[in-house]
Amino acid sequence: MKITSVNSYYISDKSQNNWGGGKEYFIVKIETDIGHYGLGEVGIIKWGNSIAYAIKHLSELIIGSDPWETERLWQEMFRSSFFPADKVYTCAISAIDIALWDIKGKSVEKPVYKLLGGPVRNKVICYPHTQGSNIKELVESCKKAVDDGWKFVRWGLPESSSIHQKNQEISILEPTKSMRIAVEQMSKVRESVGPDIQICFDVHTRLDTAHVVQMCKDLEEFKPFFIEDPIRSENPGSYKNLRPQIRLPIAAGEQWGTKWPFREVIEDESIDYARIDLCIVGGITEALKITHWAETHYIDIAPHNPLGPISAAACVSLSMASTNVGVQEMPQKPGSYSTKLFPKQINWEDGFAWCPDEPGLGVDIDMNEIEKSIIEPLGFPPRLRREDGSITNW
């Protein structure tokens, strides 16, 4: 069996609203000479053109190769330009690697999670994305999630206000004001959902260390499951300073490509949950290494999955076959969205997801719908400002 083609598709599902437009996905399809094909997904969709060219470039290395040689191909893609691959290329490597694992499973009629060692659990606990434009709406969203069967709720650090400028509404995030809102949010949500529902709170790299320390002290009484990405990600070593100052579990890592940025926080045990993004970090091949490495330090994984059905399937495959799993991000119930583009998705019930016992990842696409949904990968997500006009992380 040999790889014959590698193609990427940047698509939008207009029926799923996102940032004022359709929900976007960036997927890869790899085909072979015996008819098996595999699907992968890119993690940073708004770097679209750069990653599309990287995928095309990397295809020169893998076309004609045996898709079973995932470790060798990973090394070839990461190291063949002498300079180690940057995050544009690790996104491309991720999508290709996931697609290769999908092919491997299909070629031996086994689900990917069985190729990763077999299931250590029957299903994976997940958290959804709950949200609201004010505290009342957030509480209602969390209550609805619980009524629907979810055992977790999750939302992010709120903006503090907005202003109108040049016919645009610009969101403002002033740290101390947002922190006060966050404390009130968690108080109301905890009161509403009770003590048994877990709360994940995503700071989204929007605060600095001093602000995070103070906010976490104020949040302690509500016992959140973890505080996610409390500080910016460029310097993993900063978690060594943060860790002794707060008494809440820390989750981090969604912006890191490859195992190397995880090295310091794992070896220093300065995080509690590794937020591995399989579509950024280097695919299943690299995520599996990080997961086992984290296990030796009693760090659980909480894979980052804000994307689509292919990402969800890859994450759940890893989580089904790994012992050290805290929770799996799952913004929406699989099978409840983008079903024309992805008519076959993994399973979900009562807050748990699992991959079906069938070859590959357990997800498929409708190429006719994909072709009709292709768009140009341009634009940026919304940007945040401070009150003084400076930019802050989205």
List keywords for this structure.
single chain; 394 residues; alpha/beta; Enolase-like, domain 1; TIM Barrel; 2 domains; 6-stranded parallel β-sheet; 4-stranded mixed β-sheet; 20% strand; globular
Number of alpha- plus pi-helical segments: 12
Distance between the termini: 44 Å
What percentage of the residues does DSSP assign to strands (E)?
15-25%
Structural class by secondary-structure content: alpha/beta
Unreliable runs, pLDDT <50, ≥5 residues?
none
The CATH architecture of the largest domain can be given as Alpha-Beta Barrel
Number of domains: 2
Order of helices and strands: EEEHHHHEHEEEHEHEHEHEHEHEEEHEE
Number of E-type strands: 17
| Annotated CATH homologous superfamily of the largest domain | Enolase-like C-terminal domain
The CATH class of the largest domain, by name, is Alpha Beta
Report the mean per-residue pLDDT as an integer: 95
What is the CATH T-level topology of the largest domain? Answer: TIM Barrel
Shape summary = globular
Helix content class: 25-40%
Please tell me how large the radius of gyration is: 20 Å
Main beta-sheet strand count, sense and barrel state: 6 strands, parallel
Strand order of the biggest β-sheet = 5-8-9-10-11-12
